[in-house]
Amino acid sequence: MDRTFEELIAEADAVDVSGWDFSWLDGRATEERPPWGYQRLLGERIGRAHLHLDIQTGGGEVLAGVEQRPSGATVATEGWAPNIAVAQRNLRDKGVVVVADEDEPPLPFADGTFDLVTSRHPVMAHWREIARVLAPGGTYFSQHIGPDSGHEVYEYFLGPKPTGKSLREPELARRDAEKYGLEVVDLREAELKMEFFDIGAMVYFLRKVIWFVPDFTVEKYREDLRRLDAQMRSEGPFVAYSRRFLIEARKAEV
């Protein structure tokens, strides 16, 4: 027997959403993976590095899943308080030092410290700081969230918004990287299908990925959720499209 609307939202509203592990959604929501395999490529670069910095590491889940380690050390930063303890727990046994940082310039490191700087889904890439902490010949390697990613979710709850003028355009990232002396050696884009199979999955997603509907609570959006639940039961999964781009940039040798 299908679970009721109230049962689904009560469960999703009570579950812990700290960290950046989405396994709770297994079987309830899906998102296509980019074709390039970020974690695999990340591991290859870490294995060749000496000093590695991972910016905005979240709960450290991606970094913890990489077997390779640099010859020197890895340091990770995170600014969201609920994630810091999760990252420390996930990365402690990996020998990674987690530094609490506000994700605003300046980064708490000396000029030219790291030969590899990485970040998966940074809220914002502070290119001046990335270039500053990179050693000559060093590399920045990251998977960014692309323009208008998942806007279908936003628009369902908050109404239409203009698209196509996002600050997350890949070519803007190229321009900003080059502005601070980095050479972009790889830039790839992908559009990826997302599907939500029940209303609990949407509630969990909105509680965890807070920038989609910044003021989201179950109580505030209960009637919108009730309408979406009815729509999903009659028409099938709610579909949206995420956008990602891979960028790799290098700092010139002295």
TrEMBL record:
It comes from the Bacteria. The keyword Signal does not apply. One of its GO terms (molecular function) is methyltransferase activity. The keyword Transferase applies. One of its GO terms (biological process) is methylation. Keywords: Methyltransferase, Transferase. Gene3D superfamilies: Vaccinia Virus protein VP39. Residues 53-141 form the Methyltransferase type domain. Pfam families: Methyltransf_11. This is Class I SAM-dependent methyltransferase. It comes from Catenulispora subtropica.
